[in-house]
Amino acid sequence: MSYCVHKYCKNLFRLDSYIPIILGVRRPKKLIGFESEIEFFHFVIKVDKESIVEQSIIPDSIVFFQSHREPISSNLAQKLSLNSNQEKTVFIGAGALGSKLLFHYARGGNFNLKAIDNDTFSPHNIVRHDLFMESSGKNKARAVIEKIKAFLDNGSTLEYHNGSIFNYDRAQLEGYNWLIDTSASLNVQNWLVNSGINIVPNRARAEIAYKGQLGFLYIEGENQNPRIDDLVNYAYFLGTNIEIVSEWLIIENKKQEGNDYDIVDIGIGCNSPTVIMANDSMSFHSSIFSKILNHESKRKKIKEKGFLNVSFISENGFDVNSKSFFVPPFDIFKCNNNSGWEIRLVPTVLEKMKLEAKKYKRHETGGIFIGICNYKTKTIQVFDTITAPPDSKHSPVYFYRGIENLPEQVEYIKEITGGMIGYIGEWHTHPMGLDSLSGVDEAAVEELKPLNDKYPIPTFISILSKEKYLPFVF
Question: Which pLDDT value is given to residue 141?
Answer without folding.
Answer: 97
